[in-house]
Amino acid sequence: AQSVTQLGSHVSVSEGALVLLRCNYSSSVPPYLFWYVQYPNQGLQLLLKYTSAATLVKGINGFEAEFKKSETSFHLTKPSAHMSDAAEYFCAVSRNAGNMLTFGGGTRLMVKP
Amino acid sequence: EAGVAQSPRYKIIEKRQSVAFWCNPISGHATLYWYQQILGQGPKLLIQFQNNGVVDDSQLPKDRFSAERLKGVDSTLKIQPAKLEDSAVYLCASSLVAGAVDTQYFGPGTRLTVL
Questions:
Q1: Sign (positive or negative) of CA dihedral B42, A33, A47, A82
Q2: Residues of chain A above pLDDT 90, percent
Q3: Which residues of B touch A (CB under 8 A)?
Q4: Distances (CA, A) of A78 to A16, A59, B33, B75
Q5: A35, A37, A44, A88, best to mutate vs chain B, most B CBs in 10 Å
Q6: Which residues of B touch A57 (CB under 8 A)?
């Protein structure tokens, strides 16, 4: 079985500050890991994905995440927050076969001016 | 390229009534997924289709939920009868490649309220 834990259901940062959203996973096999963003009343949009290539993955909108096997983590970062980054962020894991995603509970990012 | 389409966007029904949701995936995408997203939680997979066959429906409450994907394109998810705890956003997603890890593209969802 696989699972995802996102530490902090709400994170608040000031505009221009570092964004750090935490994700830890458990998986019995080498995982594939994803970060999705959800804006109000919209579906989920892929930010980035890790598929066993480079451990540092760059995504859209200036986000990146680093896969750390020893820590079973895949934290999402952005050097400088923008107001437009305010949204809900979901970490997800899938096995190789079937592409079935297991999502974490989500982290709501708030950006203060 | 058109995205995943879903309708209706919002639906309000009373408990014990029936409801159906429709999804049209991105053209050419072999795999289609239905997720249930309860307020404050991450999406939970209900059912996955590969073309018009079911790959996984282990988390689908089959006593009240049903889904079909006719001709491997559009899909319909039905709830009959609905319960209060079915209030959620129902998300449809599709991916191009069957049977492998691939990006899933999500529709805007249908928000169901059961009174």
A1: positive
A2: 71
A3: 4, 31, 33, 40-45, 48, 55-56, 91, 93, 95, 97, 99-109
A4: 10, 10, 30, 37
A5: A44
A6: none
Average pLDDT for B102-108: 89
Contact B44 A43 (CB under 8 A): no
Helix (H/G/I), strand (E/B), else coil: B98: coil
A107-112 and A87-94 strand pairing: antiparallel
What do you get for the CA distance between the two ends of chain B, in Å? 37
Is B90:B110 a contact under the CB 8 Å cutoff?
yes
Tell me: the pLDDT tens digits for B20-62? 999 999 999 999 999 999 998 999 999 999 888 998 899 999 9
Q: How far is A60 from chain B (nearest CA, A)?
A: 14
Tokens 């050097």, located at residue: A79
Give the one of B42, B108, B109 whose C-beta lies nearest to A104's C-beta: B42
pLDDT at A54: 83
